[in-house]
Amino acid sequence: MATPSQTPGPAPLDLTTVRTAPKAVLHDHLDGGLRPATVLELAQHCGYDALPATDADALAAWFAAAAGSGSLERYLETFAHTVAVMQTPEGLQRVARECVADLAADGVVYAEVRFAPEQHLDGGLSLDDVVHHTLLGFEDGMAQVRDLGREIRVGCLLTAMRHAARSREIAELAIRFRDRGVVGFDIAGAEAGHPPSRHLDAFELMRTNNAHFTIHAGEAFGLPSIHEAIAFCGADRLGHGVRITDDIVVDDDGTTRLGRLANYVRDKRIPLELCPSSNVQTGAVPSLDKHPFDLLARLRFRVTVNTDNRLMSATTMSDEMVALAVTFGYGWSDLERFTINAMKSAFLPFPERLRLIDEVVKPGYALLKG
């Protein structure tokens, strides 16, 4: 039997060790995670000459600065450049393949990566072509990771833009490709003036086909967006959802009182796809230390940690976890809980979720906890 001095302790919780921890991300945009060098190379190949910088470091800095304006609308404008270079089969496959490689290198073992096929038609591809080539890229990336002796499972979410009128069409696309790598459906874009209830036919199609969907809600707009996403549309998860705190009162003595909507979200275990760095950049929260993540975690909402857009926020899953740990004093058990929350909420069959939790996530964190 080991003496106390011989008993190994927990690994230091820093960026190097967190990168080795198994992680799951549910909210990661494909067009928000390109490598700056890839943007430059694809722009050259397709003749796109509107990039704001001509070298990778300067381009990365521009994306971070433009995305950090504090405005969701300005944040969304940065995607014009990444989407512009994702209009060919080669571009889509390369971006998807590199996405898988980058996530795996950061210790991600499960990822749901989303994108809006309707935004990739300028080069003459059909919606089916766009999804087909993107899924090929994901498959290539997963195969390359397996060849390196590591594991990652990537599922694709097809997103419809809430200001457009193609949500039913994109939902049909998600159903068509559901057994080929697409695991769900989403709507995204500016919330104000574009309520989720305008897309009820798309959500009804998903429910009719027993298919999963999440909805961007409660990021730049408040409780009405969350209420509609849940009560009218039947969302399985909430993309961001930080504004659920509008229905939570914290008294001076620290006592909390939840309104009916907040109670419902917690009681039903509706997952919140929280994206800390992005939420600060878009002005959804004023600063990381003011982020409601910790409040929601302590109140036992099903919180998950996500990247949103790795390029725009200059972030990774490891960066997000370390930032939360430093800001709120989290330890390995907390990071494990957030990861298990994500795996429980994944759009995967239950046996596959359970296998990743029991065979990958828990053993990985057990090593780190010592």
Automatic annotation (TrEMBL):
It is an enzyme of class 3 (hydrolase). Keywords: Hydrolase, Metal-binding, Nucleotide metabolism, Zinc. Zn(2+) binds at residues 27, 29, 216, 308. Its EC number is 3.5.4.4. Its cofactor is Zn(2+). The record marks 240 as: Important for catalytic activity. Substrate binds at residues 29, 31, 189. The active site is at 219 (proton donor). The lineage of its organism: Bacteria, Bacillati, Actinomycetota, Actinomycetes, Mycobacteriales. Residues 22-362 form the Adenosine deaminase domain. It comes from the Bacteria. InterPro entries: A_deaminase (IPR028893), A_deaminase_dom (IPR001365), Ado/ade_deaminase (IPR006330), Metal_Hydrolase (IPR032466). The keyword Metal-binding applies. Catalyzes the hydrolytic deamination of adenosine and 2-deoxyadenosine. It catalyses: adenosine + H2O + H(+) = inosine + NH4(+); 2'-deoxyadenosine + H2O + H(+) = 2'-deoxyinosine + NH4(+). GO terms for molecular function: hydrolase activity. This is Adenosine deaminase. Gene3D superfamilies: Metal-dependent hydrolases. Belongs to the metallo-dependent hydrolases superfamily. Adenosine and AMP deaminases family. Adenosine deaminase subfamily. Coiled coil: none annotated. Binds 1 zinc ion per subunit.
